[in-house]
Design brief:
It is a single chain. The chain is of the alpha/beta class. 44% of the residues lie in helices and 24% in strands. The protein contains 23 helices and 19 strands. Strands 6-5-4-10-9-8-7 form a 7-stranded antiparallel beta sheet. Strands 13-12-14-15-11-16-19 form a 7-stranded mixed beta sheet, sandwiched between helices. Strands 1-2-3 form a 3-stranded mixed beta sheet. The chain is globular, with a radius of gyration of 30 Å. Bound molecules: zinc ion. Zinc ion binds next to loops.
C-alpha cells in the first residue's frame, strides 16, 4: 500500500527517483506510515500534496489568502453539514437560473459530496481542494453561533493563513490518508480489470457508485433525463431535465465522466450482446434497470455519442409509475370523445404529434395500453428503444432491415393496432401507409400544430412512395388518414414557492391581445414560483398536458385538398370553428386558475 503511494508519486514525477528509494527504505526500516515518511523526510509538504491531488483530480486549490467570508454562502450550508462533509462554502455568484457556489472540499475522490451539496442548496457547485484542517479552521472561524473575542478570531485568522505551510502529518492527515488509499484502490481496480475483464462487483466501482447515487437522488426529484457530456478538456457537465426544461446540475472531473462512459458501456455490453446496439441515428445505446431504495425499479435507456472531447452519455429515466393510463392524461371532454371515435375504427392512421420533448411518447403508450386492455392485439415498433411497457410486444427499429422484411414481420404478428413510435424515418411512414388498410396505425411525429402534422406526414409519403402530387393522389393518401392529436405540455407552478404579483402594463397588453377579448377581472394578477429547493429553483413543479384532437372526415379532407401544401392556418381556423377546446382556451384557463404562469404561456404561445 505504502509502496504503491510512493510509486504513484514517483510515476507522476512528484518525487524524484532518489526520494522514492529513500522513502521505500525508510518505511521498511522504521515501519512508519506513508505520510509520516513523506513529512519527516521533508519530501512533500501538505501544500505540495494538495497540488498533486489537484492535478490528479483536475481541481484548483482553495485560495485562503485575503479570503473574506460570504454570508449568503454560509447561510446555505449549516455548520453541522459543513463539518459532516468537511466542506466550506467559499462564495456564491448569481448564475442565470441558480446560484453558483464555490466549495472547498477535502476529499475530491468522494464525488457525491458536491452532488449532495448541490441538492441541499439548489446551487451549481464548483469545487476546489483544501486540506481538511484548513476547512475545519475556516468553519470554526467564520460560522456564527459562537461568540469569539476579536483576539481569538485574529489569532485563528493568522493560523489559517499559515496553515498551508505546516507539516501535514500533524492534523488532517487522516483524511488525506484515506483519500490516498481511495486513489490507490482505483488504480488497483483498473489494473485488475485489464487482466480479468469486468468483475461482478460493478456496483462498487467508483464511477458506477457515483452514477447510482446520482440516479437515487434524481429519481425522487422527478428528473426524466440526465445528460453527462464533456465540457472542454477538463470537465464533464451534468445536466438534468425536469418537467421539460434542462438545467445544469454540477460539474465533475473529465476523468470521472470518461470513466463512467467507458464502464457503463462495458457493463451493457457484458449483460447481453444484443443490449448494446449500434445505430446510425443514435450512436450506441442500451437499456438497464436498477432498484432504488429497495422499492422502485428504475428503467433507464442509455445512449452514448462520440464528441471531440470524449463520450457523451444520455440517460432517459422511467419509473414504473410513470406509465400513464389513458384516464390520467387529463384530456378535455370534447377532445376525448373525438379521440375515442378515432380509436374505435379498425383501420386508418391516427397521427400523434407534439414539438420535441412534449410528452407524445407517454401518450402514445397510454393509447396503446388502453387498446391492448380492451382486447386488441397491439404491436409497437420504435425507432429508439425508449421504454419497456408491459402488455405490449415491442420491436426496436433497425435500419438494416428492409421494408419488405418489416412488412412480413408485421404481417406475421397481424396486429389489430400497430404503433409506430418516433417515425422520423421515411420508410416508417411508408409502413404506416402500408398497414393503414388492415390495422389501426398510431404514429408519433414531431410537429407543432394540426395542419403542420398532417401536411408534413403527407408530403413525406409522397416522397417515399415516389408519387407526383396530383389531386387524385392526394385524395388517395388522405383516405388512409383517420385523425390527428396534437399535444403540448405546460409547466405548473410549484405550490411551495408560489407568489402572486400584479401584471406589468406590457404583460397586461400582451395578454389582452392574446386572449382577443376584453380581459377578465382576475387577469390583472399573475402567479409564479419564485424558486425553492422543492422545485430545484425553477419555480415549476409539474406538467400538465394540453390537447387538440381532430377527426379527418370528408369536410376536412376537402379543405386539405383545396389548400395543400399550405394547410396550417386553414386547419387552425377550421378547428377553432369546430371546437372550443383550443390551446389558447386551455392556456387561458390554466392562467386564470393560477396553475401556470404568464411567462409559461408566453413561451408556449410562441
Ligand atoms: Zn418551488
Amino acid at each position: 500500500m505504502k509502496e504503491k503511494l510512493f510509486k504513484l508519486l514517483h510515476d507522476e514525477q512528484v518525487i524524484t527517483e532518489e526520494q522514492y528509494q529513500q522513502a521505500l527504505q525508510r518505511s521498511e526500516t522504521f515501519g512508519e506510515s506513508a505520510e509520516q515518511v513523506l513529512g519527516r523526510m521533508g519530501i512533500l509538504s501538505e501544500e505540495q500534496l494538495l497540488e498533486f491531488l489537484g492535478r490528479k483530480f483536475r481541481m484548483p486549490l482553495a485560495d485562503w489568502n485575503d479570503y473574506i467570508p460570504d454570508q449568503r454562502a454560509l447561510n446555505l450550508i449549516s455548520e453541522d453539514v459543513a463539518l459532516k462533509y468537511v466542506v466550506f462554502p467559499l462564495f456564491i455568484e448569481q448564475g442565470k437560473r441558480q446560484g453558483k457556489m464555490t466549495l472547498a472540499i477535502a476529499n475530491p475522490s468522494n464525488v457525491s459530496v458536491a452532488d449532495d451539496i448541490a441538492f441541499m442548496t439548489g446551487c451549481t457547485i464548483k469545487t476546489c481542494i483544501a486540506s481538511a484542517r484548513a476547512i475545519r479552521e475556516a468553519i470554526h472561524l467564520y460560522y456564527p453561533g459562537k461568540v469569539r473575542s476579536p483576539e481569538e478570531a485574529g489569532a485563528q485568522a493568522e493560523t489559517g493563513k499559515r496553515a498551508p505551510n505546516q507539516d501535514f502529518t500533524r492534523s488532517g492527515s487522516g483524511e488525506i490518508n484515506a483519500l490516498l488509499s481511495n486513489i490507490l484502490q482505483e488504480v488497483e481496480g483498473e489494473a485488475e480489470e485489464q487482466i480479468e475483464g469486468i468483475s461482478g462487483a460493478d456496483r462498487e466501482h467508483p464511477s458506477i457508485r457515483f452514477l447510482l447515487e446520482l440516479l437515487q437522488k434524481t429519481a425522487k426529484y422527478g428528473v426524466t433525463e440526465i445528460h453527462i457530456d464533456p465540457y472542454g478538456h477538463q470537465e464533464y457537465r451534468i445536466r438534468l431535465r425536469r418537467h421539460g426544461s434542462l438545467h445544469e446540475h454540477t460539474r465533475i472531473p473529465a476523468q470521472l465522466g470518461e470513466g463512467l462512459a467507458t464502464r457503463l458501456q462495458k457493463i451493457l455490453q457484458q449483460a447481453d450482446r444484443n443490449v448494446l446496439q449500434k445505430t446510425e441515428s443514435t450512436g450506441r445505446h442500451g437499456r438497464f434497470s436498477t432498484i432504488l431504495n429497495g422499492a422502485n425499479s428504475l428503467d433507464i435507456a442509455a445512449n452514448f455519442y462520440p464528441t471531440p472531447f470524449g463520450k457523451k452519455i444520455y440517460l432517459r429515466l422511467q419509473k414504473d409509475a410513470e406509465l400513464r393510463t389513458f384516464q390520467h392524461l387529463g384530456m378535455p371532454e370534447k377532445s376525448l370523445k373525438t379521440l375515442n371515435r378515432s380509436l374505435a375504427k379498425p383501420q386508418g392512421i391516427l397521427l400523434l404529434v407534439s414539438p420535441p420533448g412534449e410528452g407524445k411518447t407517454t401518450t402514445f403508450y397510454a393509447l396503446l395500453r388502453k387498446l391492448a386492455q380492451a382486447g386488441n392485439h397491439v404491436l409497437a415498433l420504435e425507432e429508439v428503444d425508449e421504454r419497456s411497457v408491459p402488455d405490449i410486444p415491442q420491436i426496436p427499429y433497425s435500419p438494416e432491415t428492409s421494408f419488405q422484411e418489416w412488412c412480413s414481420t408485421i404481417s406475421y404478428y397481424a396486429p389489430h393496432v400497430l404503433g409506430l413510435g418516433a417515425v422520423e424515418k421515411p420508410s416508417m411512414k411508408r409502413l404506416a401507409f402500408e398497414f393503414a388498410s388492415s390495422s389501426l396505425v398510431i404514429v408519433t411525429l414531431t410537429a407543432k400544430s394540426l395542419g403542420d402534422g398532417v401536411c408534413s406526414f403527407i408530403s413525406s409519403l409522397f416522397d417515399e412512395l415516389d408519387m407526383c402530387c396530383s389531386t387524385e393522389a392526394l385524395s388517395y393518401l388522405l383516405d388512409s388518414m383517420n385523425g390527428i392529436v396534437v399535444q403540448r405540455l405546460a409547466r405548473t407552478i410549484c405550490p411551495n414557492c408560489r407568489e402572486q404579483h400584479a401584471l406589468s402594463e406590457s404583460d397586461h397588453e400582451w395578454l389582452q391581445q392574446f386572449a382577443g377579448v376584453k380581459a377578465e377581472d382576475g387577469d390583472a394578477v399573475s402567479s409564479a414560483g419564485k424558486g425553492c429547493a422543492e422545485c430545484m429553483e425553477t419555480g415549476y413543479n409539474g406538467q400538465i398536458a394540453l390537447f387538440e384532437v381532430l377527426k379527418i372526415d370528408k369536410v376536412l379532407k376537402n379543405l386539405l385538398l383545396q389548400h395543400y401544401p399550405s394547410c396550417v392556418s386553414p386547419v387552425r381556423n377550421f378547428y377553432t370553428e369546430m371546437s372550443p377546446e383550443t390551446f389558447k382556451h386551455q392556456l387561458l384557463q390554466l392562467f386564470r386558475n393560477r396553475v401556470t404562469s404568464l411567462a409559461e404561456i408566453r413561451r408556449m404561445a410562441l
